[in-house]
Write a structure and sequence with these properties.
alpha+beta, 5-stranded antiparallel β-sheet, 5 strands
Length: 205
């Protein structure tokens, strides 16, 4: 009976882990297909008007060319100036400027190890005594009260839905327990629903 229950738990864990891992991949593919379709929708009629017939796969070829050209332009001074003008245009359009800035910050953060937002995996006592949660240490800030002494606090991001959603908790710096795991290792921990954690965790006070 216990063996059957253990097998059921493993199957459930594997299914959950598979869904969590495939979810961001699926979103990426959906966005890629949307971009290719958009390019095909815009460029397709122009090509038909010029040569009289539609070319299969034109959207994919054009999308690849656009991405390649953008990368090429970013490597020379003239191209960087052109991209800067386009970026400034986006930043001066209401709503679009917020979306563009947010997307750019997220892309830069996760594509650069130096800018990785999740510095390390930590453990905090939250929301009350006796309850511990894992989270990512993202920053240290100083809280200062008017006319009173300030205190150093740690900014901890606690995921509530496997990285996609979460809450930001300000914790006294000395109440944060380092677990000796890096940001990428912490991401692996959450994506595997905790299955990737070693049997023994050593707290670093």
């Amino acid at each position: 009976m216990e063996e059957s229950a253990g097998l059921g738990r493993r199957i459930k864990r594997y299914l959950l882990t598979g869904i969590i891992i495939l979810a961001p991949i699926s979103v990426t593919l959906i966005l890629l297909l949307w971009f290719v379709s958009l390019v095909d929708y815009v460029v397709g009629p122009i090509i038909v008007a010029l040569i009289g017939y539609r070319i299969p796969g034109l959207g994919l070829i054009t999308a690849f060319f656009v991405v390649f050209l953008t990368g090429f332009l970013s490597t020379n001074i003239l191209g960087r100036q052109l991209l800067f003008v386009v970026e400034e245009l986006f930043l001066h359009i209401p709503v679009l400027n917020f979306l563009y800035r947010t997307a750019k910050q997220m892309t830069e953060a996760f594509s650069s190890r130096d800018k990785m937002p999740f510095k390390s995996l930590v453990m905090i006592e939250h929301p009350g005594p006796g309850v511990r949660k894992f989270g990512f240490l993202t920053n240290h800030v100083r809280l200062e009260a008017a006319g009173g002494p300030g205190e150093e606090v740690a900014v901890v991001y606690v995921p509530t839905n496997h990285l996609y959603l979460g809450e930001i908790v300000l914790v006294q710096a000395d109440k944060v327990t380092e677990m000796g795991l890096t940001g990428p290792e912490g991401i692996q921990f959450f994506l595997s629903a905790g299955a990737s954690l070693p049997r023994v965790l050593t707290k670093r006070c």
